[in-house]
Amino acid sequence: MSSILPIAFDGIAYASWLFLISAGLTLIYGVMRILNVAHGSLYALGAYAACSLAGAWLGGGLPAAGSFAMLLLAAVLVGSLVGPLIERGLLQWMYGKDEVVLVLVTYAVFLIMEDVIKLVWGVDSLLLPEPYALPGNFQLGGLPYPVYNVVLIALALATGLALAWALYRTRQGKLLLAVIHDREMSMAMGINVSRVYLATFAVGATLAALGGAFTAPTIAVTPGIGVEVIVLAFAVVVIGGLGSLGGAALGALLVGLVRSATVRYWPEAELFSIYAVMAMVLIARPKGLFAAQEARKI
């Protein structure tokens, strides 16, 4: 029992992080049918923006607790500025083309943004330890754990609940579901699909940046951090089913718990365990656990 609690907590904390970075990716695919490779760079941009804003806040001698607000602000700024810029400036001209073309376009955006990040912030590592250390630690199973992990879990829960409420309890969410089900019919009924796409991509970009912003205090922020993240995010959404928000949550939880147990008992196989889970799920269910139902064309 003493080992089960730490494994479960580590797995849930890691799953919370995975869900934050995967929710936007599966949302964008569900609505726009775009496998957004640039999601990784949006994550990295959120991390760098968080370091800059929170660092400036703390450098000004302001209360350290306010640095958490700076992390949120960084995510909102990246999502509301960079997301619409990519969608309006580039992606809107690519709708209707083959999905492979859209993947290549977003991959090009990923490469461009990686170089832009290096030009703006340089190649040296950035550190932002204050938000991570500020809440302190607690004991679980005889081991010390940072309270910051609890913050990540709470943030993931709040994000998931907010997305579910927005999708199923609001008028805008129901319009979004209509677009997901049948784009052509939605246009015929007078729904502004272009505006729905813009809002969806902005929200997805904000979620990617949110994951990066709240990860920044736990790591050394360096160029290339978005590469591993986009691979992990793809693994999670493929396990859960492309376009399924609930699938992303379940996929993140499954990967998080399996990884946590593997790190505990067989650390050399940490990375292998994630892709082993993906392989086993796809063997049983080739479209993932909760693949979104496709509209039948007549």
TrEMBL record:
UniProt-listed Pfam families: BPD_transp_2 (PF02653)
GO CC, any one term: plasma membrane
Membrane topology, from the record: Multi-pass membrane protein
Regions crossing the membrane: 12-30, 42-62, 68-87, 99-121, 147-168, 196-217, 229-258, 265-284
Domain of life, source organism: Bacteria
Coiled coil: none
GO biological process entries: amino acid transport
Key words of the record: Amino-acid transport, Cell membrane, Membrane, Transmembrane, Transmembrane helix, Transport
GO molecular function: transmembrane transporter activity
Keyword Membrane in annotation: yes
Subcellular location(s) per record: Cell membrane
Similarity-based family: Belongs to the binding-protein-dependent transport system permease family. LivHM subfamily.
Name this polypeptide is given: ABC transporter permease
Organism listed in the record: Bradyrhizobium icense
Lineage, highest ranks first: Bacteria, Pseudomonadati, Pseudomonadota, Alphaproteobacteria, Hyphomicrobiales
